[in-house]
């Protein structure tokens, strides 16, 4: 589909002129940016518009060509009709997920608008001078931009998350004006998820709420400058705001709600990570925790799984460390799931360190199956690091435990055989 503007067909849309025919200087508002701008008076074309206004025009074209009402598009794009209205009239910059969804409904390739959307998101907004309300800055201004701009005010929050100074007051005011679902999601993203960023799927699992409600809340947070969509479909909270959100989470959410939120995060990550681990290495024993079912749509074949783990590695590692910090019993299982990614890349030190943390948690919780799993993984990690003595200690622990899974015991015996080879160590052929 050609996305050239359909506006102005059969209509005159040239500049306004006074009675003498001179072009007047018109003052208007930049759609999506709230900037006061002047028109030169010459005939406006699509190329003359700034990126946010051009994007809004393209989206209106797409909407018209779908022939669907806003209510119908709400269902098809998982975006409220009120939000769609703001995106179409250019008053708010839409998240990339909404742009892509609208393109799909219209039957066109979303990549045609990716460059324009990126330009609209990056377009700087003019400051309105001293005393401007940060909470009302346009959504197309990155959060990091105005945090850096007001860095002279020092951090807007103290170490406990309390607002200090004018900047802290403005950001606190932004939070206070959020709807209930958006405020709750903000607390969950900053108070539970360790970062560095989240997807809409993870946010939905964390909130345990309908996808449409979560997407609407994400958009509200972006519009309030409390969240940044730094890549299409990936959301990040600034480190200073994370401190603020963590404080609100501790103060406003009940203890049971907080515990359940961490449970949802660990279970969601565990299910997805195990699906990826099994796709990457079908020979591994299917060790998993019987938890709540989750949608594992992103995990398909080995190549898809590898792409997913590669993209999510930092977040996965952060979740494993968070689980270890909290002494969660799923830590050995989460650590196990990262092996098919770390081992082929020669990241043996990281593999060893993660398994050490897993073993510590299993020891503290008197979790013998978890200890067996972590000991086996540590034995294999030390083999790859060339430390046969340390590897032997961990393999022998697994073999000596009478209650060990036969598959674990078999893998440990194979590891001991590798350690005992007179010609020295070779890469084990056993996968677990």
UniProtKB/TrEMBL annotation:
<dbReference type="Pfam" id="PF13560">
    <property type="entry name" value="HTH_31"/>
</dbReference>
<feature type="domain" description="HTH cro/C1-type">
    <location>
        <begin position="59"/>
        <end position="113"/>
    </location>
</feature>
<dbReference type="InterPro" id="IPR001387">
    <property type="entry name" value="Cro/C1-type_HTH"/>
</dbReference>
<feature type="region of interest" description="Disordered">
    <location>
        <begin position="1"/>
        <end position="23"/>
    </location>
</feature>
<dbReference type="InterPro" id="IPR010982">
    <property type="entry name" value="Lambda_DNA-bd_dom_sf"/>
</dbReference>
<protein>
    <submittedName>
        <fullName>Helix-turn-helix domain-containing protein</fullName>
    </submittedName>
</protein>
């Amino acid at each position: 589909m050609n996305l050239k503007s359909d506006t102005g067909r059969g209509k005159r849309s040239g500049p306004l002129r006074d009675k003498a025919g001179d072009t007047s200087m018109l003052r208007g508002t930049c759609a999506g940016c709230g900037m006061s701008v002047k028109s030169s008076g010459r005939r406006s074309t699509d190329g003359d518009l700034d990126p946010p206004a051009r994007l809004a025009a393209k989206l209106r074209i797409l909407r018209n060509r779908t022939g669907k009402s806003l209510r119908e598009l709400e269902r098809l794009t998982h975006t409220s009709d009120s939000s769609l209205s703001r995106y179409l009239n250019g008053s708010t910059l839409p998240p990339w997920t909404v742009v892509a969804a609208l393109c799909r409904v219209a039957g066109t390739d979303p990549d045609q608008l990716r460059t324009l959307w990126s330009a609209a998101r990056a377009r700087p907004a003019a400051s309105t001078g001293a005393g401007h309300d940060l909470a009302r800055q346009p959504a197309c201004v990155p959060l990091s931009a105005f945090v850096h701009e007001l860095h002279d005010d020092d951090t807007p929050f103290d170490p406990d998350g309390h607002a200090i100074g004018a900047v802290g007051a403005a950001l606190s005011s932004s939070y206070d004006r959020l709807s209930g679902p958006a405020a709750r999601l903000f607390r969950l993203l900053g108070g539970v998820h360790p970062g560095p960023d989240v997807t809409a799927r993870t946010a939905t699992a964390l909130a345990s709420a309908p996808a449409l409600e979560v997407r609407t809340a994400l958009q509200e947070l972006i519009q309030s400058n409390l969240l940044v969509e730094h890549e299409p479909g990936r959301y990040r909270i600034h480190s200073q705001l994370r401190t603020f959100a963590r404080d609100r989470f501790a103060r406003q959410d009940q203890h049971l709600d907080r515990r359940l939120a961490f449970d949802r995060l660990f279970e969601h990550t565990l299910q997805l990570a195990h699906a990826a681990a099994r796709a990457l290495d079908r020979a591994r024993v299917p060790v998993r925790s019987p938890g709540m079912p989750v949608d594992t749509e992103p995990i398909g074949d080995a190549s898809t799984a590898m792409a997913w783990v590669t993209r999510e590695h930092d977040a996965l590692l952060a979740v494993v460390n968070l689980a270890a910090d909290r002494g969660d019993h799923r830590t050995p299982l989460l650590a196990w799931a990262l092996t098919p990614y770390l081992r082929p890349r020669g990241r043996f030190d990281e593999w060893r360190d993660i398994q050490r943390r897993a073993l510590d948690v299993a020891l503290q919780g008197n979790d013998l199956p978890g200890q067996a799993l972590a000991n086996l993984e540590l034995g294999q990690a030390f083999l790859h690091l060339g430390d046969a003595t340390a590897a032997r200690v961990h393999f022998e622990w697994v073999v000596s435990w009478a209650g060990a899974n036969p598959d674990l015991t078999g893998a440990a015996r194979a590891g001991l055989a590798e350690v005992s080879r007179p010609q020295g160590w070779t890469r084990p052929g056993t996968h677990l």
